[in-house]
Amino acid sequence: MNERRKQGILLLFPVAVLLMGIIFTTALFYHTYRQIAYQHISAFSEIILETSPEAEPQLLSGLKGYYSMSEQEIVKNNYLGKYGYRAEEFCKGIPTYTFILPVMLFFMVSGAFVLAAWLFHRRSQKRIVDLTEYLERVNIGAGETLIQTQEDDFSRLQDEIYKTVTTLYQTREAAVSARKNFAENLANIAHQLKTPITAAFLSLQLMKKEAANEYADRIERQLDRLNRLEESVLMLSKIDAGTLLLKHEKVDLYTALNLAAENLNDILQDSHIFIEILENGCIEFFGDLEWTMEAFINLMKNCMEHSQPGGIVYCEYSGNPLYAEIRIWDEGTGFDEEDLPHLFDRFYRGKRAVGNGIGIGLALARSIFELQNGTIIAYNRRNGGACFEIRLYSH
């Protein structure tokens, strides 16, 4: 409340100065006008009496008539005009300060207004800067309490900011805790699945040794799929829990792409598909070679699955001071437009999905790139085919 009173006084001060100046100037001009009028009439009367002493009775009678005239009659009177006299010829004896004072008053009032506006702006600017710096510290994770030091027009805003920040802190902590619990539960489920899956594989191998049949092969394919699902779920749980530790070392993109292609040699030979990596010199980024290679493998496999026998999966890379860019594309039919917004969602299988995938490869690739300060997008090329574009930023 004290601060508001100060601001109110600060705003009323120039108004008060202006009113006082107007009252003072009006009184001064009125006093000056009466004094000058009196001196002029007195001097005129003295001149008449010096030249014609016998005219004193007529002069006194004229003065009485002057006092009996109304103000409007005096203002409209222009009797001396017919003799060639003008009003400005009678403006003698007016003090200089009657002209200087209004100018001084103007500058005083203007200065008071400017000073008040500057002080008010400075106070407001300081409060805005304080609140902005507080939000900046909150954004970088430097949690602290916003102390209420003064009561002003920003106090309500400050209270609401503090309430909002407190609520966001609580919501974030709850979300982090819930995500951690979910990741832990997911990891426990994946570990629990590992034991029966392994046991089922061993039993299946014994069954196949005694009597191989087509049903055993079907069961084996489903167990393989279930095993991949368990491994993927375990991997995603580590990512969610923040326990997947990635290295931070120089990685050559050409090397990473070639290693990923080598891991797909068997699949490439069976499907008669080729991978062509367009060399562009040595371009490096800071990350984890093994996990980057794993992400590239998932993208290449996706392109292979949508390529015709004899088709080519292309890979190219480039770099600039801000980021390294990698593009992987095929010559297939491309993505369905309805699938594009969901391609990187977990367990999502598009309309043109092939094979027995579980819809986790693209989601895993995106998580790996994001953990290395990167981004990935997917789109259809104008000339046909699907394309993945990855950017790995320097900082």
Topology:
Elements: H1 2-51, H2 56-68, H3 71-76, H4 97-139, H5 155-210, H6 214-241, E1 249-252, H7 253-262, H8 265-271, E2 274-278, E3 284-287, H9 289-305, E4 312-319, E5 323-329, H10 361-371, E6 374-380, E7 386-393
Parallel strand pairs: 2-4
Antiparallel strand pairs: 1-3, 4-5, 5-7, 6-7
Helix pairs in contact: 1-4, 5-6, 7-9, 9-10
Explain this structure to me?
The protein has 395 residues and is of the alpha+beta class. The chain has three domains: 2-135, no CATH class; 156-241, Helix Hairpins (Orthogonal Bundle); 249-393, Heat Shock Protein 90. 61% of the residues lie in helices and 11% in strands. It has ten helices and seven strands. The protein has helices at residues 2-51, 56-68, 71-76, 97-139, 155-210, 214-241, 253-262, 265-271, 289-305, 361-371, and strands spanning 249-252, 274-278, 284-287, 312-319, 323-329, 374-380, 386-393. The strands form two sheets. Strands 2-4-5-7-6 form a five-stranded mixed beta sheet, with helices on one face. It has a two-stranded antiparallel sheet with strand order 1-3. A hairpin with a 5-residue loop joins strand 6 and strand 7. Helix 7 (253-262) crosses helix 9 (289-305). The mean pLDDT is 79.
